[in-house]
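Run: sequence + alpha-L-arabinofuranose -> complex structure.
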Amino acid sequence: MSTGNLHGVVDLDVAGATISRHLYGHFAEHLGRCIYEGFWVGEDSPIQNTAGVRDDVVQALKEISIPNLRWPGGCFADEYHWMNGVGPREERPSMVNTHWGDVVEDNSFGTHEFMQLCELLGAEPYVSGNVGSGTVAEMSDWVEYLTRSGDAPMSRLRREHGRTEPWKVPFWGIGNESWGCGGNMTAEQYTQLASQFSTYARNHDGNELYRIAAGPNRDDYHWTETLMKSISTLGGPVEERHHTRWQALSFHYYTHASDDWQHKGSATEFDAEEYHRTILNAWRIDEIVRGHARVMDAYDPEATIGLVCDEWGTWWDVEPGTNPGFLFQQNTLRDALVAGLHFDVFHANARRLVMANIAQTVNVLQAMVLTDGAKMVLTPTYHVFAMNAGHQDATSHPVQVVSSDARYRGEVGEYATLTTSVSSREGSALVSLTNLDAEGGGTVRLDLRGRDWQVATAKILAAPSLQAHNTVQDPSAVAPVAFDGARREGDTLVVDLPPHSFATVELTLA
Ligand code: AHR
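>> structure
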């Protein structure tokens, strides 16, 4: 069995960018069984719930310190009319969810239910407003309804619906995928609308919105540049740029095992070639984040405008026998490795990248949690979020790679098989390590300089095969265990990783 080697240097006394906790953000759309069944079961359900929200899912997400939740879409956001989702449930009009399964949505989960869910989770709400089929006034009213106190028309309506105090809503999306399901617009058309809709998404009563413009698909750098060019205050003093109409732009990037949209590959039954294609595609996140950041740097060198990746993750064919419009897929060790890789890229780009939201949290695409009636299974991806939770709001310490021979080379292409990132806070540091090699082990040597340190604890997520996954019958087939593969040699942290594994090492800093 071959072993790849990576040798890097890390200065623990030199602070890189802060890794925003919002890089560990989430996304819940009215899609398949994400909201209904996944989060919301209703007050009368035999499944244990608080005000209709299932307790087991909330507890699991609190344990990974879920920082924010994006809602109601996705594509659904641009056909969602929020007024239909407030007031007495039995009086709410229904609608057709044309994007996802063509099912009738009864609007029983609406604004109040979402805000309650965020309160239960301790997560900050990220609301996606409707640009594709909504109006400026409708979005403006929604902001007022949520965030304004006093005797304004929308605050009065909110009170009539049972909520006296306004909520705090920090994050506001100005549409979703406006280049596609959100209206099939050009970058130029959308840029004008983003300015108009953002203008009327007001700050009320000290609630300061962080408005996120719907940015490009994947590597559409023209879209990013068109948005950036429209920021008229650039060139002026940095302080004044906070008055730009929107504060960030988002892009989406999904990982597939093939380029054929009709055959994205099975979540659990894949061969070595599909695995290599998956990892090659996953690594593209690095090039794409850096690409958008470079475009933004040209217009905003001080990085006052944030880059957000508010949809990312693996997207496979749906599980056999499930509704093709519900996007329900299993989640294997391969998914966990894709997540480990993404987080290292996110940490390395934390200066510009301020938020990321995995798609999606429950029962859809690369989920944390899969539910089956009253039962719930934590996925391998969940465990990566759990093991990496210590990076949230920590200070990054870039890994300078001195040398590495850890590469896969094959017919489908070439990629690095070892990746790592380091952060610290107060008296401890967290090192994450991913070995993407399907068959070989890997050794990472990090010369840790600038502070004295000791290995405190280490954990590993591994399994006999890449296809291993958790089910109701076997919920811990892929779960973290204590790891003895990390040691100190002089000032070097040496970590021996088995094939296809993800590990974290906690250090005590003197
Ligand atoms: O996450 C599923 C869908 O993927 C979202 O609704 C859409 O924004 C994207 O195309």
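>> summary
The mean pLDDT is 96. The chain has nine helices and 27 strands.
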